[in-house]
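Forum: Protein Structure Q&A
Topic: Joint prediction for protein chains with partners

I've read a bunch of threads here and the consensus seems to be that you should model interacting components together rather than docking separate models afterwards. I'd like to see that in practice. Below is the full input, 424 residues plus whatever partners are listed. Could one of the regulars post the assembled result?
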Amino acid sequence: MTHAGGKPLINGRLNDPIAPYVRQTLGLVLHEPEVGYLVDGAWTINRSPQTPGVRVKKISFKKFVSFEVKGRKAVQLTTERIEKRFLQPFAGKAVAPPPIWLMRQAGRYLPEYRKTRAEAGSFLDLCYSPKLAAEVTLQPIRRYGFDAAILFSDILVVPDALGQSVRFAEGEGPRLDPIKSVDGLSRLALSNTNDKFSRVCETVERLSQALPRETALIGFCGAPWTVATYMAEGRGSSDQAAAREWAYADPEGFAQLIDILTEASIVYLSKQIDAGANAIQIFDSWAGSLSEDEFARWVIAPTARIVSEIRSRHASIPIIGFPRGAAALLETYIHGTSVDGVSCDTSCPLSIMQKIAQSGKAVQGNLDPLLLVSGGDALDRRTDAICRAMAGLPFVFNLGHGIVPQTSPDNVARLVERVRVNRA
Ligand code: 1CP
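Posted by a regular:
Agreed with the consensus. Here's the joint model:
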């Protein structure tokens, strides 16, 4: 719950039942569907004879609606989410032109990022400095007016906070002292995480104040499987083999690591939502390295647990999964995890993206980041093809993976302009 103007403010979402919000603020159980639903920005209220004290006070259709229960203000439901275009596909709605944000939209391709990064010292110092992390999050929003900002942080903040210290040498990827068996788990403790998680959440708080009202804020974490691959390997490699080797050799021991990461991710994401994140993305960059059974155990099961825990605490937050490299298992993933939407990598066929979006789930994707490097007509053509294929469906334009450092900022501007002429 966040506060605005000193009043309780809970963000409702299109088609959300109202009763859980009332229950959350007043502990009062209302009977659905008697209380009503928010549908397409208008409230439909069926007065309940069983809850005679409930009165709905409409302040403004556009901004918010407040409820009074027995003369006491219970809850104020804002329609703010509806104004954030990015969030609409997660209520199953198509938006034209499609909302756009790009993975790694803050990063080394931007000169202003390089400057702030140099000021911060190390990469992790940047992640743990709320002022500087908020600044680099805002940089691409100022330049391009993306529909969503993504918190500037890294998936490896979680192992770092748990106690496996992480280093980022300049121009190199992450380095960790690898944990390759159950013996290494004693180094980790959820009770260690508070200070570092709080610093990241202070960045979220700053951003929820600083961002334009129409811009959504995405919080995130790495999925347990992907984070475990870095913890076992000690770095990024071509195959992240160490985690698979451990999982095959000692599945029970490896499950303990996955459990620790699942718990930590639930705590971390909940804190980000409390601090003001409007949506959550779970990055599973190494999901595609697993066979079907292992995928069910190490990707789907822990993600499903995170989703259900987050839902029980924050009923209306959109949760997006990114099981990279797993197009063939995408429908199994959606069904098994109950995410509200998926990000698709470049290899995912548009026909699969269409099918998922037709089922009402939001889809993000999936332009090749290298096409954004080469630019020109080929970039325009593929951008148009993606927008055409996804027109009329709940879709958010994105890349299939992160922006690479050699990308020209002008090409990003060209892409954003091109996406925004798709008004059909
Ligand atoms: O030198 C630098 O400035 C570091 C480059 C960099 C950046 C900009 C790293 C190191 N992380 C980040 C930020 C980051 N990482 C964000 C911030 C928000 C944004 O997108 O703008 C996010 C969401 C991530 C997520 C992340 N980190 C993932 C999942 C998505 C993906 O890219 O697959 C992964 C796998 C990481 C690990 C990581 N952090 C950094 C690097 C270079 C890597 C990859 C290591 C490897 O596999 O080689």
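The first helix runs from residue 19 to 26.
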